[in-house]
């Protein structure tokens, strides 16, 4: 037996400490132990070729993660003890957090369970371990987000029933259906959807500008959880790239399947992130960068480098990338205009951009803002000045796939709403775009199942027939507290009081139109 | 087309040493300071060497310690006990 | 006046999230509560899983156990992620110290070769069982329907990976990190008749579909019998053979098992108390699996501590089951 102890190389050590613990079963059939690995048509000939995306053993994982958590919770404690919420730029900022907590945090939980599932079901032990680590990380993310928001929830409205709302509120079916779609898919599609398309290609657009935005708006708690979570994200991104390369290298028959998934999940992710676009351009009182700039840096530039790298496997950039690139000039304005009209049915407030903010938007969007969007906001401002704050009481048409109201415009023609319809087995379905319509066509049996909030209200499945009852009873949105315009809201009044300004009257006349 | 490999750190004390080491080992890299974060990008390839970081930080340093401060990366990862490389290969 | 307003504006307008208020009343909540309860989606799922058309996502019927509210099961340790990793970081620091101590002083390599071989044959192959336990717990974390339940199982899954890694490192200490001892140890797991009943049991557990049956099998029955046998009885036996230094390297497992019993017991008590139907179902699973677990451990006992020690372990385990309101299946070891 060897007597000399030499220090293991990281790679060797990791092989011994992970996949070498696995064995070829002989008492049960491999396909019974791993029943979900084949049905998607992905061919894996040799799991030994799996490259571990990072090589953390559990001892190192516990050590580093504990260090991160210790730092993080020290800051949460300090933030709460010092009433850190009083130091943010403006209370309007908190509405971005409301959107985040109800829209994103529950997805982290879904990711936790999704990765736990695939972390059990790949027959390659290296891939399993990588997925399990991501699984427990995702649990970390939902929990640290809940803890970061805990203090805000004590001082602001709209954060109080995030999980209940996530399952029910109309616009939250956008993120929810996105994750349900991934979790109900097979394990390889799940990883393409979440690890690659979401974590690798798009997550920077969510976290980096959002966290910089938090930093710019004095929100220490969110910056801290965000950056702490992102330090896990670097590992997740590596997994995302490795899994794609692995599938592509394993068998040429995998290429068209993966390409289809990349097309689908790029588009799904792009639609989901339209919520982030309005957050960046409209909800941050101190702006960091425009959605357009963020899209250019984090998608066009990074994505360009990535898809060039993947060319060698026969992968091309996602279909409808050109539509998304064109949309960078429009979607934030179109989204915010829509949410402005439906503020009576959301758990966060909306408001009209100030004159200074509109000037910033003109500067950032020289080709589109003044031409297409400023007039709309100025018109609503006039109405609001007259005490006729505009609320739209007609329920919107939702896209059957992404579930965003069909509010987007045609590629190249921002005056024309983009609508597609399709008949399937005698039913007519509506879509916001060719991207979503294609996704439906490929798997109609999946998307006919969509739980579309507007249809559900009409069918009487939401505890009431009128919007007000649905909003209060079914959604748990506290009317007059969580919803309506920011101006005159209880959040606004409390903020004025904090800042020592004269509180506005609670009987503010700007939101009587609901 | 330009292909930038990049790494982004939280702007904190650890990161200052890391950034210094990376700038030294990657003369073609550009360091950008953003609110609360530092982004380093370089055409095609970016390398972090353990030896250089140890020299800057004045103690033993495990490449994996980087995981505490990193926010985002771009490029294929190649990691062993002596270095962490981000690279676009095509 | 303005000072008064300032004071009022610092007063919170609520103490906690609405879901926590509904459960525990309108008062400040613990971090464990806010991070654990009601965080899993319960309704309005969009699509049925392609991999299991019989069930929906987050479907409570993936187990035969019925609970009006799965959040009745909670963690007596109150572990949320931050508390969990900080606890384990402390445990690993102690373990690291022991491994480095053994390494520096060559405590394993200076043992007689036959004794080293005993470790490779009888102790180190448990790393494979740990990997099976890791998979089982990850599976449960993916299938269970309440945040309080899922998180305990993902912690358990990661713990098992960690303990498998510690066991592997024992062999790496012996072979000087060539991996040669690990390969030999794995051959025992694959081929030695001694291990085949346990390997079969682990493989059988990997095809169990009902997630609560799986937690009963893995976390109650296999662990509840294997850990006392291998990490207490067998550990003492090793000491008698002159391998007392190994104890340092398995201290983590003893501490871990003592802790793990607390939440496993709490979970089973709650589930059993819910209904007679649950109690009967648990009893059926125990009746089915317990004799198989004992039989799988017999060759290991025969080769080391003897059958009387296993009987003692079984007796103690029966006491544990009784305390949980469950009856042990009548089997002689």
TrEMBL record, chain A:
Pfam annotation, one family: YHS
GO molecular function: monooxygenase activity
Keyword GTP-binding tagged: no
Domain of life, per lineage: Bacteria
Gene3D superfamilies: Ribonucleotide Reductase, subunit A
The YHS domain, residue ranges: 410-451
Record keywords: Monooxygenase, Oxidoreductase
Stretch forming the signal peptide: none
Protein name: Phenol hydroxylase P3 protein
TrEMBL record, chain B:
Source organism per UniProt: Halopseudomonas aestusnigri
Pfam families reported for this sequence: MmoB_DmpM
Family under the similarity heading: Belongs to the TmoD/XamoD family.
GO molecular-function term, one example from the UniProt record: monooxygenase activity
Family matches, as Gene3D superfamilies: Monooxygenase component MmoB/DmpM (3.90.56.10)
SUPFAM superfamilies reported for this sequence: Monooxygenase (hydroxylase) regulatory protein (SSF56029)
InterPro entries: MOase_MmoB_DmpM, mOase_MmoB_DmpM_sf
Domain of life (superkingdom): Bacteria
Protein name: Phenol hydroxylase P2 protein
TrEMBL record, chain C:
Keywords, in A-Z order: Monooxygenase, Oxidoreductase
Keyword field contains ATP-binding: no
Signal peptide interval: none
SUPFAM superfamilies assigned: Ferritin-like
Organism domain of life: Bacteria
Statement: the UniProt record of this protein carries the keyword Heme: no
Pfam families, A to Z: Phenol_Hydrox
InterPro entries with a match to the protein in the record: Ferritin-like_SF, MP_mOase_hydro, Phenol_Hydrox, RNR-like
Protein name (database record): Phenol hydroxylase P1 protein
Recorded GO MF terms: oxidoreductase activity, acting on paired donors, with incorporation or reduction of molecular oxygen, NAD(P)H as one donor, and incorporation of one atom of oxygen
């Amino acid at each position: 037996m060897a007597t000399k102890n030499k220090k293991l190389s990281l790679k060797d050590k990791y092989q011994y400490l992970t996949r070498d613990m696995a064995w070829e079963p002989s008492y049960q059939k491999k396909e019974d132990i791993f029943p979900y690995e084949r049905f998607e048509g992905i061919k894996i000939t040799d799991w030994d070729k799996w490259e571990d995306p990072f090589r953390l053993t559990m001892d190192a994982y516990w050590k580093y993660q504990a260090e991160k958590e210790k730092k993080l919770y020290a800051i949460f404690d300090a933030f709460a003890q010092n009433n850190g919420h009083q130091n943010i730029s403006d209370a309007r900022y908190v509405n971005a957090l409301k959107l985040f907590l109800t829209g994103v945090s529950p997805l982290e939980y879904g990711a936790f369970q999704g990765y736990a599932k695939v972390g059990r079901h790949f027959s390659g032990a290296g891939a399993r371990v990588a997925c399990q680590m991501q699984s427990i990380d995702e649990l970390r993310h939902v929990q640290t987000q809940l803890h970061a928001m805990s203090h805000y929830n004590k001082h602001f409205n709209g954060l109080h029933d995030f999980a209940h709302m996530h399952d029910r509120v109309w616009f939250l079916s956008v993120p929810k259906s996105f994750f349900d779609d991934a979790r109900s898919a097979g394990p390889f599609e799940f990883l393409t959807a979440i690890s690659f398309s979401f974590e690798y290609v798009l997550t920077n657009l969510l976290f980096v500008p959002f966290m910089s935005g938090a930093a710019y708006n004095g929100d220490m708690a969110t910056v801290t959880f965000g950056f702490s979570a992102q330090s896990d994200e670097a590992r997740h991104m590596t997994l995302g790239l490795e899994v794609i390369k692995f599938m592509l290298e394993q068998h040429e028959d995998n290429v068209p399947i993966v390409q289809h998934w990349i097309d689908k999940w790029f588009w799904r992710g792009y639609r989901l992130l339209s919520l982030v676009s309005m957050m960046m351009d409209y909800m941050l009182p101190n702006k960091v960068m425009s959605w357009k700039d963020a899209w250019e840096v984090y998608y066009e530039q990074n994505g360009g480098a990535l898809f060039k790298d993947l060319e060698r496997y026969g992968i091309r950039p996602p279909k409808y990338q050109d539509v998304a690139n064109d949309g960078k000039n429009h979607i934030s304005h179109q989204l915010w205009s829509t949410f402005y009209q439906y503020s009576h049915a959301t758990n966060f407030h909306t408001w009209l951009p100030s004159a200074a903010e509109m000037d910033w938007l003109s500067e950032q969007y020289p080709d589109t803002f003044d031409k297409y969007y400023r007039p709309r906001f100025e018109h609503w401002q006039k109405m609001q000045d007259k005490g006729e704050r505009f609320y739209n009481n007609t329920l919107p048409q939702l896209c059957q796939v992404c579930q965003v109201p069909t509010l987007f415009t045609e590629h190249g023609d921002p005056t024309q709403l983009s609508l597609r319809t399709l008949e399937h087995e005698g039913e007519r379905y509506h879509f916001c775009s060719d991207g979503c319509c294609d996704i439906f066509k490929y798997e109609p049996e999946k998307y006919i199942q969509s739980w579309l909030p507007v249809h559900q209200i009409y069918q009487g499945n939401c505890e009431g027939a009128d919007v007000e009852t649905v909003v209060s009873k079914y959604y748990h949105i506290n009317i007059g507290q969580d919803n309506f315009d920011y101006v005159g809201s209880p959040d606004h009044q409390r903020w004025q009081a904090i800042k020592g300004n004269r509180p506005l009257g609670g009987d503010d006349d700007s939101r009587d139109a609901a | 087309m330009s292909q930038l490999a990049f790494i982004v750190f939280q702007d904190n004390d650890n990161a200052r040493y890391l950034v210094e080491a990376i700038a030294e080992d990657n003369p073609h890299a550009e360091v950008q300071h953003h609110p609360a974060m530092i982004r380093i990008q370089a055409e095609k390839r970016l390398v972090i060497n353990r030896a250089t970081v140890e020299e800057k930080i004045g103690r033993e340093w495990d490449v994996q310690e980087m995981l505490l401060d990193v926010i985002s990366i771009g490029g294929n990862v190649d990691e062993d006990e002596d270095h962490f490389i981000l690279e676009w290969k095509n | 006046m303005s000072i008064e307003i300032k004071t009022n504006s610092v007063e919170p307008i609520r103490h906690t999230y609405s879901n926590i208020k509904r459960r525990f009343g309108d008062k400040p909540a613990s971090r464990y509560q806010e991070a654990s309860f009601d965080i899993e989606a319960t309704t309005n799922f969009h699509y049925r899983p392609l991999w299991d058309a019989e069930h929906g996502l987050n479907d409570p019927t993936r187990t035969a156990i019925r609970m009006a509210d799965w959040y009745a099961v909670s963690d007596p340790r109150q572990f949320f992620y931050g508390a969990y990793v900080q606890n384990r970081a402390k445990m690993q620091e102690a373990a690291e110290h022991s491994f480095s101590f053994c390494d520096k002083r060559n405590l394993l390599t200076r043992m007689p070769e036959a004794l080293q071989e005993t470790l490779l044959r009888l102790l180190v192959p448990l790393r494979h069982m740990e990997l099976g336990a890791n998979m089982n717990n990850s599976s449960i974390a993916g299938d269970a329907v309440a945040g309080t339940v899922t998180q305990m199982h993902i912690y358990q899954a990661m713990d098992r990976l960690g303990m498998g890694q510690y066991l592997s490192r024992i062999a790496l200490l012996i072979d000087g990190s060539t991996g040669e001892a690990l390969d030999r140890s794995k051959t025992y797991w694959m081929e030695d008749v001694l291990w085949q009943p346990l390997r079969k049991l682990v493989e059988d557990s990997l095809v169990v579909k009902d997630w609560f049956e799986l937690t009963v099998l893995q976390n109650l029955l296999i662990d509840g019998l294997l850990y006392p046998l291998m990490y207490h009885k067998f550990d003492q036996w090793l000491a008698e053979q002159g391998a007392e230094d190994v104890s340092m390297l398995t201290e983590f497992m003893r501490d871990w098992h003592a802790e793990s019993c607390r939440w496993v017991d709490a979970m089973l008590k709650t589930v059993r108390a819910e209904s007679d139907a649950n109690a009967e179902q648990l009893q059926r699973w125990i009746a089915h699996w317990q004799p198989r677990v004992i039989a799988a451990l017999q060759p290991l006992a025969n080769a080391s501590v003897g059958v009387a020690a296993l009987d003692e372990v079984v007796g103690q385990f029966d006491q544990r089951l009784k305390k949980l309101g469950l009856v042990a299946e009548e089997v002689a070891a």
